[in-house]
């Protein structure tokens, strides 16, 4: 008996159809526009579209698809996420097994930093990649990568996962203000994270913290860092709207599947030094992580770059209990009820999968498609 088109694609790719497209219209100004264009281009029996009305909608769709994969001998599901880092974060925060899920990240939010890390930096590339895989012009095996996730336990029993980063310090406060501003109408072309950080520094609304930390259960080698602006645990390369946080000491970019993550501690600095650091982190080099350290472990950029972290325990020693405290989890603020309790952060090796575009392996015929990169979608996109 001759296979149907759908059965042929499933056999060739190993993906159970239909492909799911989850759109978060609250993620940013572009999201709904992208959704409408994708429905026009991709609206067929091969795709199923979901528009989230709350964060729980995103998580529940992923949980449902994960359970379907479990009951179907582990046949993979491809889920396209149209939104930003917050949307991606909601997708992974299910208690289900995500090892049979492949996420395709479509940058449609305020910040889509993890998508940038894996080469999915614009909508055209994601759509072209999906098209090429389903039509057989590209092998999914060439564009599939398992990735680590970050598990965070806090407030004596709460748990949340991150795809890109987790941090304490000024970042949680900044994310709270950025997300509140986005709901009021967005920030246009300016970098909202830098804008809100500058505001917090100038107004004195942020109080510097002292942090005790233990890496990889090394109790003897525990440390205390004083007057900390931000303590970041990161798996990806970019954060804060394409700021080059984690280029690696070899400037080859972040390794997102090595079972480890990196740490970046930023201590108190002048406003001028903060602006210099912001400019440096917009550049495509790694000078801010390879600069020599002083006896206290910090370099001239007021940073301490840590590598090879599988687990880290953090405690804020001087948390002001009269103020609200927030964690930053993939650009989403998480309110903390017990800021002086221990925070445990650990890697979840190869916890899920993503489509990615290796820098040395462009899409088929991409040299021709580069002519279309400034448009929302290429002129031809058929299934």
Largest sheet: 15 strands, mixed
Mean pLDDT: 86
Shape: globular
**Overall tally of structural domains:** 2
Q: How are helices and strands ordered from N to C? A: HEHEHEHEHHEEEHHEEEHHEEEEEH
Our Rg estimate from Cα atoms comes to 21 Å
Strand content: 25-35%
Report how far the terminal alpha carbons are from each other.
Answer: 23 Å
Determine the fraction of residues in helical runs and give it as a percent range. 25-40%
Task: Indicate the structural class.
Answer: alpha+beta
Q: Would you identify the regions where 5 or more consecutive residues have pLDDT less than 50?
A: 184-189, 368-383
- What is the fold named in CATH at topology level of the largest domain? Tumour Suppressor Smad4
- How many β-strand runs? 15
């Amino acid at each position: 008996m001759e296979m149907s088109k759908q059965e042929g694609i499933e056999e060739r790719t190993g993906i159970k159809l239909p492909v799911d497209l989850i759109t978060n219209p609250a993620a940013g100004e572009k999201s709904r526009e992208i959704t409408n264009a994708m429905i026009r281009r991709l609206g067929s029996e091969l795709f199923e579209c979901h528009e989230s009305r709350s964060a729980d909608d995103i998580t529940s769709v992923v949980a449902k698809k994960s359970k379907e994969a479990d009951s179907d001998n582990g046949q993979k599901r491809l889920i396209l996420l149209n939104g930003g880092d917050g949307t991606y974060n909601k997708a992974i925060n299910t208690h289900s097994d995500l090892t049979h899920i492949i996420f395709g990240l479509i940058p449609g939010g305020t910040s889509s930093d993890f998508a940038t890390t894996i080469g999915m930096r614009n909508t055209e590339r994601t759509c072209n990649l999906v098209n090429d895989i389903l039509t057989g012009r590209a092998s999914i095996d060439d564009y599939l990568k398992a990735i680590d996730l970050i598990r965070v336990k806090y407030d004596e029993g709460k748990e949340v996962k991150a795809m890109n980063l987790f941090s304490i310090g000024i970042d949680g406060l900044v994310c709270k203000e950025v997300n509140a501003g986005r709901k009021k109408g967005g920030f246009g072309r300016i970098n909202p994270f830098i804008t809100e950080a500058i505001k917090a520094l100038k107004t004195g609304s942020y109080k510097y913290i002292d942090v005790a930390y233990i890496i990889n259960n090394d109790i003897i080698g525990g440390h205390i860092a004083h007057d900390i602006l931000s303590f970041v645990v990161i798996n990806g390369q970019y954060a804060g709207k394409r700021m080059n946080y984690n280029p690696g000491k070899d400037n080859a970019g972040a390794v997102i599947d090595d079972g480890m993550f990196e740490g970046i501690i930023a201590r108190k600095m002048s406003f001028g030094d903060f602006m210099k650091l912001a400019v440096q982190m917009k550049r495509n080099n790694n000078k801010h992580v390879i600069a020599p350290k002083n006896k206290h472990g910090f370099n001239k950029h007021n940073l301490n770059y840590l590598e090879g972290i599988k687990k880290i325990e953090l405690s804020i020693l001087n948390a002001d209990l009269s103020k609200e405290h927030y964690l930053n989890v993939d650009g989403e603020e998480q309110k903390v009820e017990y800021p002086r309790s221990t925070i445990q952060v650990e890697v979840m090796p190869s916890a899920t999968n993503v489509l990615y575009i290796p820098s040395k392996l462009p899409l088929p015929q991409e040299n021709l498609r580069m002519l279309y990169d400034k448009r929302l979608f290429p002129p031809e996109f058929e299934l």
